[in-house]
Amino acid sequence: MKYAILFGGNSYEHEISIVSAVVLKKILKADLSFIFCDENREFYAIPSIKLNAKTFSSQAFKKEKKLYLKQGGFYFKSFLSENKLECDCIINLIHGRDGEDGKIAALFEFYGVKFIGPRLEASVLSFNKEWTKLYAQSIGVKTLPYTMLRSYENKDFIPNFPCILKPARLGSSIGISVVKDLKELAYAKDIGFEFDEDLLIEEFKNNIKEYNLAGCMIEDEFIFSIIEEPQKKDFLDFEQKYLSFSRHNQLTEANLSEDLKEKLKENFKKIYNPLFKGALIRCDFFILDEEVYLNEINPNPGSLAHYLFKDFNQIINKLSKDVKNEKKISITYSFLHSINGQKGKL
Amino acid sequence: MKYAILFGGNSYEHEISIVSAVVLKKILKADLSFIFCDENREFYAIPSIKLNAKTFSSQAFKKEKKLYLKQGGFYFKSFLSENKLECDCIINLIHGRDGEDGKIAALFEFYGVKFIGPRLEASVLSFNKEWTKLYAQSIGVKTLPYTMLRSYENKDFIPNFPCILKPARLGSSIGISVVKDLKELAYAKDIGFEFDEDLLIEEFKNNIKEYNLAGCMIEDEFIFSIIEEPQKKDFLDFEQKYLSFSRHNQLTEANLSEDLKEKLKENFKKIYNPLFKGALIRCDFFILDEEVYLNEINPNPGSLAHYLFKDFNQIINKLSKDVKNEKKISITYSFLHSINGQKGKL
Predict the structure, then answer these.
(1) B101 and B129 in contact (C-beta within 8 Å)?
(2) Residue A241 confidence (pLDDT)
(3) Are residues A263 and A130 in the same domain?
(4) A237 at the B interface (CB within 8 A)?
(5) B83, B134: one domain
(6) Count of structural domains, chain A
(7) Which chain A residue is nearest to residue B344, measuring alpha carbons?
(8) In this complex, do A124 and B128 lie within 8 Å of one another by their Cβ atoms?
């Protein structure tokens, strides 16, 4: 299989996506090409040997071949002709905006490009923490109680302390604050509203345990990663979270009863099927008093959470063969023919 | 102002969108160009004089100038050079898939194109009747009770009769059946599942009154259309619904108390703000025992529901000046610089 890895994007997680691409280059045993989406949303083909931090931070990528999207895939110009970037499947590895908010899914569906990653509806529902709550409710998955704070409502809502404030539409702990009193609340709101006009407030529970489970569905069978209990202090900040996913050491599974492991998997299945078909996602759960709560869905997790799987290469190979785009609708013009026949007017 | 009207799309409502474009050509007093999206999702510039049914049903549009999307807008090639299609704002007039499911919104946000129409989140939530219900719930707008029927669950749910079956993701009454008994149910399910894997079932209420209200928000002020009580027999079918919107005669407002009119507007405001900013939408409401229920949201209504407004041209001119795309995120590469400085590793 020949894959193209799409990374970058006009996203707060642009740089993290570059790290993800570098990590997958090391992990994936396949014929790979790399498509970089810069901050202006121009696409570039990055040669594998140039896939390093300096290429991007020095803007050297601008000397590389420019790509553009058309029906069927990415193309580039050479002297007098136009060529297609050959690949069997694109891996959407843009984190946050563009990659996880539905834009890339929409572009690839529109242009008929085969890809691994969340589809349009799945992206929009998992990108916004408020919709994620509503989605979870609708499928019978528990989440923690929450209140929305909206910049345009000027609401003087005072939560119980300690609480946690999260911008509705950002991943990777960006703009998130743990708030212990009223003074901290004002500051946390200022930070949060810099990133989003909707903030979500939850009670901050110090004793809560978090567990990550990644997986996907291939030919109607679920494939699960091991269950990880991530390390944390208060909550994982940006650097901790992402430097962590370049690790190679074998993880040990979280110490949980078989019953709770099964509960986590049952919740994952409800969330995944059928909304996230085509994607390899990571769900972050809380366990509180033996009950499972969904915290968030990462439809393009850092480095695709490869470190949680024993047979990552095989999973990607199988998943890429199983992904499907929308069926085309065939246009017959029978309606135009009929009103034309009746009235000759249009 | 110079507008480009985008119509067509790979949608069951492709032909209806052509009708919409023909109607708007007559109504909009402005410098107009026309961008046709064919069933293969290729774009063509259609000269105003060729905007008629035959151009499309005979495939003659294929002789016209091909357009392609790049950063900043639509471009076309001429001998040795590339030119931009000049326009101040695009009007998204694709109905159903592509235009109302979030794809066009995503493309235009991605490529930085200014447009009138629903944004990405608004599209996904209003395109799917189930998410519309959940959205309405979350903002305190009533909807009728419903049950979901999913093709992949094989559920032998038996509703109360008469009921109405609707594919979750289609507009314009396509695939909808009113069902009076068990025999009709099997047939209606077959029809519905041809179009969508999720069907929504509601009780069919013969005595229910439907009211349509269109509007938009410009500079924080709401502009409303008159309230219309559409004619119906059982429910409006495809042809009835769309032949109706080319009418030019002045409508008379529905016979409702001031109190109920106000209730409809209050519900519209809750639905619109802020999710639908940038769009001119039509909400279809039910009134039952003096209570208002949302039936559906049309974020690109047929011919933009021009016939419901007294000053349609002025509204479009003001709205087009007020639409905003997402703010760009600026990428500093401070994270890559910092990990590079510390480790020289990436």
Answers:
(1) no
(2) 54
(3) yes
(4) no
(5) no
(6) 3
(7) A53
(8) no
